[in-house]
Specification:
Elements lengths: L4 E5 L4 H13 L2 E8 L6 H13 L2 E6 L2 H5 L27 H14 L5 E3 L15 H15 L4 E3 L7 H10 L3 H7 L16 H20 L1
Parallel strand pairs: 1-2, 1-4, 2-3, 4-5
Family: Belongs to the QueC family.
Function: Catalyzes the ATP-dependent conversion of 7-carboxy-7-deazaguanine (CDG) to 7-cyano-7-deazaguanine (preQ(0)).
Pathway: Purine metabolism; 7-cyano-7-deazaguanine biosynthesis
Length: about 220
């Protein structure tokens, strides 16, 4: 039986869309919140809006453009090359404080609507070196949010211990493999679905899908 209300931090990508479908299976009322923080592609926001419309979820876009002023990075600037971290350095796509701010604002948004379940697609298994995707960070922030607002929030991370192949499996278990595969935007270059096939996000997505489909065929 579905109970309570939830806010999904929603980008229109594979992970957050899978989390949106996950939330729709569990909560009576679901809100989707997308943050405009100066992404290279406005298409990300358009895709999020279209998906929310498709599934009948109330969708809100919040302006976080200040984040780009504070922390220029490859996700917001064309003059910064997309690269993976080397020798212990963080990837150029890391946005300092992004998940801290997004989850905090999503909680404020939820508090105003009586939605105390906050759902995010962060993942420690394939977290690309981002420190704000780790389980310890999420648990710490959950405590901080409850103390700061004197409420009882629950931060849900359905993908925390799943690799990309297992994330595809979850989408399939939810009956949404085809939709997630064709309609979501993960690509750093703004190509919907399979993407450009070259950027780190597309490579991780493709490898996970191939691994899952191979295992699915083997188990059939």
């Amino acid at each position: 039986m579905k109970q309570g209300s939830a806010v999904v931090v929603f980008s229109g990508g594979q992970d957050s869309t899978t989390c949106l479908f996950w939330a729709l299976e569990r909560f009576e009322k679901v809100y989707a919140v997308t943050f405009a923080y100066g992404q290279r592609h406005d298409k990300e926001i358009e895709v999020a809006r279209e998906i929310a419309h498709d599934v009948g979820v109330e969708h809100t876009v919040l302006d976080m453009s200040l984040l780009n002023q504070l922390a220029p990075n490859a996700l917001t600037r064309d003059d910064i090359e997309v690269s993976e971290g080397e020798d212990g350095e963080l990837p150029s796509t890391f946005v300092p404080g992004r998940n801290l701010l997004f989850l905090s604002f999503a909680s404020i948004f939820g508090e105003q609507r009586g939605a105390y379940h906050i759902v995010t697609g962060v993942c420690e298994t394939d977290y690309s070196g981002y420190p704000d995707c780790r389980d310890g960070f999420v648990k710490s922030l959950n405590v901080t949010l409850n103390l700061s607002m004197d409420d009882t929030f629950v931060l849900h991370t359905p993908l925390m211990w799943l690799d990309k192949a297992e994330t595809w499996r979850l989408a399939d278990d939810l009956g949404q493999l085809k939709y997630v595969r064709e309609r979501t935007l993960t690509c750093y270059h703004g190509v919907i679905g399979a993407g450009c096939g070259e950027c780190p996000a597309c490579q991780l997505r493709r490898q996970g899908l191939e691994t899952y489909l191979t295992s699915k065929d083997r188990d059939a």
